[in-house]
Design goal:
alpha/beta; about 20% helix; three-stranded mixed beta sheet; single chain; about 250 residues; about 20% strand
Length: about 250
């Protein structure tokens, strides 16, 4: 029930433009700390990437399979799942399951517990498009340390990633995201999690303690580290990022 509510939260955000409705198949599996890491509550990803037909810097732009299906109505993954979400059963005692799912604001996780609905919303967002082909080594390697694992293309998220002026962290430069970020009281572009060589976290989360106060975004859905004792929601910042990478948001 908690998983269903988490996905329903996202389902209300999108405008589908295909001739048929998108049916997103999700595989939820159990893993342990040896497989996911001792502090990783869960992990999620899209299982295929699809050439969008668009070009960026002479390279093809690839959508996640989920984004392609929501925009076109075409499921290129056939009967296989579109998104994989893996839950760390060793940390199950740290997860809080909302007992009153019809009202997400009437209570909150207790001390040291993490909102399970929020965890699933976060991981599903990686399937939606908070992912890509880029990885990097930490400074002082600078731009030369940013590597694309696919020479022939970039992810829809990747085209908005750039270094900040001092080459200390990466930023997301989408115009819709800038607008919401500035409404929150910040200047410049939204900093991305930029530690270097942290697979699964670098670049595809926002907020970074090195970026001059942006740690105030703690508690937002797509930070790299979950916030305990809070019921998570999808914010305008999250949907702005998805608008920038190509979704139509209702």
């Amino acid at each position: 029930a908690n998983i269903g509510v988490a996905i329903d939260q996202w389902a209300t955000k999108f405008i589908q433009t295909g001739n048929s409705s998108a049916t997103i198949d999700i595989n939820v599996s159990a893993m342990d700390s040896h497989q996911l890491g001792p502090s990783t509550l869960a992990a999620g990803n899209s299982l295929i990437s699809v050439n969008s037909g668009e070009i960026y810097n002479e390279k093809a732009i690839f959508y996640s399979g989920v984004q392609h299906e929501i925009l076109t109505g075409v499921d290129l993954n056939a009967l296989e799942e579109d998104v994989s979400i893996m839950i760390n059963l060793d940390l199950l005692s740290k997860l809080w399951f909302d007992p009153t799912l019809n009202d997400r604001h009437d209570n909150a996780p207790e001390k040291g517990e993490y909102d399970f609905v929020g965890v699933i919303m976060h991981e599903f967002a990686h399937g939606l498009g908070f992912n890509g082909f880029l990885a990097y080594s930490p400074p002082p390697n600078g731009e030369q340390g940013l590597k694309n694992s696919y020479d022939f293309g970039v992810g829809s998220f990747d085209r908005f990633i750039q270094w900040n002026d001092d080459l200390q962290w990466f930023e997301f430069t989408g115009s819709k995201t800038d607008q919401i970020y500035h409404q929150l009281g910040f200047e410049g572009h939204l900093p991305l999690y930029s530690k270097g060589n942290v697979m699964g976290s670098d670049l595809y989360h926002y907020s970074n303690v090195n970026s001059g106060g942006v740690e105030n975004l703690d508690g937002y859905l797509m930070t790299a580290v979950a916030t305990p004792e809070e019921s998570m929601t999808i914010s305008a910042l999250d949907t702005a990022i998805l608008q920038d990478i190509g979704y139509l948001i209702g």
